[in-house]
Design goal:
Aminopeptidase, two-stranded parallel ribbon, 8 strands, about 35% helix, globular, binds N-[2-(1H-imidazol-4-yl)ethyl]acetamide, binds zinc ion
């Protein structure tokens, strides 16, 4: 080998070496948990695609912009049509249950449960659900004159739906082989207002979920498990292991809380028991449609345990926080993408 060929050879050898080193370094931040996430388990590698909290935020804002989604109102009709259109856009087979439900005060509600199905043929199924209606009365308002007006329902109603719409978008981009059913239940929030003194006996909360649990969209519907998202968008939200969730679905409850921590969201998923909360997962559990977990924000800093803005006019977009949406959305996605 001539001298200048030798120099060229050595040069190429060094250049190739440098290229290798730079390629290795550009891969170091791939597929590990985000470095911004506090206290994450760095040995855990996320399998699910990235949940986009900007997208979830926008889906909440769009719902809120319709106005309060109270059954029988124009805003309710428009918001319902929007949810059907989005689920279709994201590749789900959409069916609707339209039914008339009687309230504690004898009003007939034109209610709709909105159901998006992925892989209807699959036997292994996961049910993801949230309520999409908003409370017709701000009964937790301090000012009595404001209590009879409906709430914006950004967190209570909007947040669970917004997170599930973003999961639907991701399911369309990165399809799973298992079956996924997304249900937006109506008429959850029509419980008798706390300012009324004459208590009317009956189950006035969760009426859409009760209807579906008794009359599922497919006969003998069963899912391996279910996850309910209720009030999952507020800043510094805390999620405790809710009573019925532990009673009916302890394994999946443990799995969700463990994965939440491993992904770096341990400040949201608190490893402690919470109270029993009447919510849409109760009829779903009681009728054995799916052992179901409720991810619901509770805190000790308010009178009722659901945060100061709960069932008030303050439940608007200003309470919604993208870090919370990300924590919940990514954790739920991790649970379902691990099923593959
Ligand atoms: C009760 O207050 C009995 N259950 C809470 C369920 C709920 C209302 N979730 C949102 N709004
Ligand atoms: Zn509510």
């Amino acid at each position: 080998m001539k001298l200048h060929n030798k120099v060229l050879f050595i040069f190429l050898f060094i250049a190739a070496g440098l290229l290798l080193v730079s390629c290795n370094s550009c891969q170091t931040n791939k597929s590990t948990v985000q470095s911004s996430a506090p206290s994450s388990d760095y040995s855990y590698e996320q399998v699910s695609p990235e949940f986009n909290s900007d997208s979830a935020f926008l889906y909440i804002k769009t719902q809120v912009d319709f106005g309060p989604r109270v059954p029988n109102s124009a805003a309710h009709k428009l918001a319902g049509d929007y949810l059907v259109a989005k689920l279709k856009e994201f590749g789900a087979d959409v069916t609707e249950q339209k039914m008339v439900l009687k309230t504690y005060d004898g009003i007939s509600l034109n209610a709709r449960n909105i159901i998006g199905v992925y892989n209807s043929e699959s036997k292994k199924r996961v049910l993801l659900f949230a309520h999409w209606d908003t409370r017709p009365f701000a009964d937790e308002e301090a000012d009595k004159s404001k209590r009879t007006q409906p709430i914006p329902g950004a967190n209570d109603g909007g947040s669970g739906v917004g997170v599930l719409l973003e999961i639907a978008r991701q399911l369309n981009l990165s399809p799973l082989n298992i079956g996924i059913d997304i249900i937006f239940f109506d008429a959850e929030d029509w419980g008798q207002p706390s300012y009324e003194s004459n208590h009317v006996p009956g189950d006035w909360w969760c009426m859409g979920a009760q209807y579906w649990a008794e009359n599922p969209h497919t006969p003998n519907y069963r899912a391996n498990y279910g996850i309910l998202l209720d009030m999952v968008g507020a800043s510094n939200a805390t999620f405790y292991k809710e009573g019925y969730s532990v009673q009916y679905a302890s394994n999946i409850t443990e799995k969700i809380w463990q994965l939440g921590s491993r992904l770096g969201y341990g400040s949201f998923f608190i490893n402690k028991r919470g109270g029993y909360i009447t919510d849409d997962h109760v009829p779903v559990n009681q009728f054995h449609r799916a052992p179901s977990v409720n991810i619901i924000h509770t805190s000790e800093d308010s009178r009722h345990g659901f945060g100061d803005f709960w069932h008030t006019h303050n439940d608007d977009m200003s309470v919604i926080n993208k870090s919370t949406l990300k924590a919940v959305g990514q954790t739920v996605m991790e649970v379902i993408y691990l099923e593959e």
